[in-house]
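Handout, section B. The chain below has 291 residues.
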Amino acid sequence: MRKATTSKLPTLDVSATQRGSRVDSVVFAVYAPLGTDEILSIYPATRQQPVARQALVKALQRVADQGVNVSALIDLFEDDTYLVEIPAGQSRQMSITSAWKQDMSAPQALAGFLRRTHQRFPCSALVLALEGHGGGFVPDIDYARLTRSNATHWTSGAKSGVVRWIKSDQGTRFEPEAGSPALPMTSPELPMTSPELPSTRPPMSSWALGAALRSAIRSGVPRPAVIHFNNCFNASFEHLHTVAPYAAYATGYANYDFYTAGQAYPRVFQQLRAAGTASAQQLAQWFAAAN
C-alpha cells in the first residue's frame, strides 16, 4: 500500500468550530452498526471473514494512506464489536481491539466512541461517517412501556378494539379497524421497519443520535466538520434538523444509498490530500459526488 509522501498531513479549515484548538490533521471516524444484518456484515464477500480482511477495513486502510487518521467502531453479525485505529500514513500500524458486543443503537456507544477517537487523535479535525441501514427520521421508542396489550389494542375516542396483524403476498395489514396501532416502530408505513427489511431492529433513533453528539461535544470532543450519512433516506428535514446544531455540514441521501463497504472513501480523501487543505463544505460535496 502507498503511504502519504509528504510530512505535512492534509487539514480542514475548522476555525469556526474549533476556535483556540491546535488542528494539524484530520480523523475519519466511522460508526458501523452492521451486526443486525448478515449481508452488510460480510459484503461483498459470501461468508464471514476476520475483521482485518473486511472490505470496509481495507478501504479505511487506503484512507489512512492519504494522510488521514482513522478510527472505526464496527459491529459484525454473530461476532464482536471491533475498535479499529489507523494512524495517518501508517496503514501497516493498524490496531484492532475487540470491544466485546456493543448496543450500537444506544447513544452511549456513539458518544463513547467519539470520546475515544478524540483521545486517540486529539489534534485532528473530526469527520464522522455513519454506516448501515438508514431510516430517515426514526422515533425514539421506550421499550419498557411497550407491552403486548398496547401493541395490539387501539383506542380512538369512545371506540376501542384489538388489532390483528396479517402478513401475505400482498403485503402487511392489520384488522379489523383502519389506522396505525400504538406501535410506531413496526408500523408498515415506515420503510425501514417493514417486516420485509433484513435488519432485525431499527438503527439509532434520531433523538439518540442528537443526544450522542451533544454528550460527546460537551465532554470536549470537537464538533464534527462533516457528518456523512452513508445509508438510505437520511436527507429528511427532520433528521438533518436534529443533527444541525452538532455539525458544520451533513451529507445525506433522499433515496436508497446502496451499501459500498467504504469503496468511495479513499477517493474523497485522495482529493483532500491533493488539495492540501479544504473547507468542511468542500469535503461534504466530495462525499456526495464520490458516492
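Note. The chain has a mean pLDDT of 84. Compare this with the example in section A.
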